[in-house]
Write a sequence for this structure.
């Protein structure tokens, strides 16, 4: 299986140089390029590369910001090789677990050494992940969700679970609602219900759940149906099928 590489640098000539050096090595597939930090974070989350050659100084978001904006729930992190014209960033690069640091200008021998090292680290991590995966799967199932990772065209940001007042299903997505905004996530309501149970989210109908801490009023309507008034005035109507969950809340 080929090693999948993403090239990130705001200078086209630098990206071409990396491609040229990579072409001299067997078993390499360049899966994409990015010319700025925002695009880099998006491509890492989308393409899941094995190795990223990452320029430190770029418009909008630097290399350190790219790593901070990679979704930690989106699979194993890639191996990073930092590239920069300034050695002042070296210590910080290793603090964020970059496996090597290329100082411009570098020759193909130095590049080859960094690539070999990065591939070795990636293979070691892959073997470790393979051995730990059963345990990690078990731990993930037990760990409550603390925040949502939200992506749009220009950025990746986080929404604490406690800020979400209710969630509704919409096709293959869910829409999380806060006091001021709404965001679409590719997730199912059933899976979220399991993850959010420790946070007292309550399924009130097939297509919606509410944050119990945000309920300000419950109004009985008819035939076991309730209007649930949330902080801020939003009203979510329950269904009879899930009425027992609301009654359990009222009796607790």
């Amino acid at each position: 299986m080929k090693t999948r590489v993403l090239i990130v640098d705001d200078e086209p000539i630098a990206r071409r140089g990396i491609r040229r050096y990579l072409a001299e090595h067997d078993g390499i597939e360049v899966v994409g390029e990015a010319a700025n930090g925002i695009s880099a974070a998006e491509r890492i989350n989308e393409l899941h590369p094995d190795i990223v050659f990452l320029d430190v100084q770029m418009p909008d978001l630097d290399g350190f910001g790219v790593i901070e904006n990679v979704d930690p729930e989106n699979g194993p992190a890639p191996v990073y090789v930092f590239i920069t014209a300034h050695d002042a960033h070296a210590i910080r690069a290793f603090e964020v677990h970059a496996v090597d640091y290329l100082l411009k200008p570098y020759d193909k021998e130095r590049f080859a050494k960094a690539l070999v090292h990065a591939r070795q680290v990636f293979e070691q991590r892959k073997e470790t992940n393979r051995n730990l995966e059963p345990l990690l799967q078990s731990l993930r199932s037990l760990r409550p969700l603390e925040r949502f990772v939200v992506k749009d065209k220009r950025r990746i940001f986080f929404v604490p679970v406690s800020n979400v007042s209710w969630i509704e299903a919409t096709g293959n997505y869910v829409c999380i609602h806060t006091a001021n905004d709404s965001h679409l996530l590719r997730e199912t309501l059933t899976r979220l219900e399991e993850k959010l149970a420790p946070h007292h989210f309550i399924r009130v109908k097939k297509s919606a759940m509410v944050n119990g801490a945000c309920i300000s009023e419950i109004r009985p309507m008819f035939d076991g149906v309730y209007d649930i008034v949330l902080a801020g005035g939003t009203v979510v109507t329950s269904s009879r099928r899930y009425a027992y969950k609301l009654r359990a809340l009222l009796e607790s």
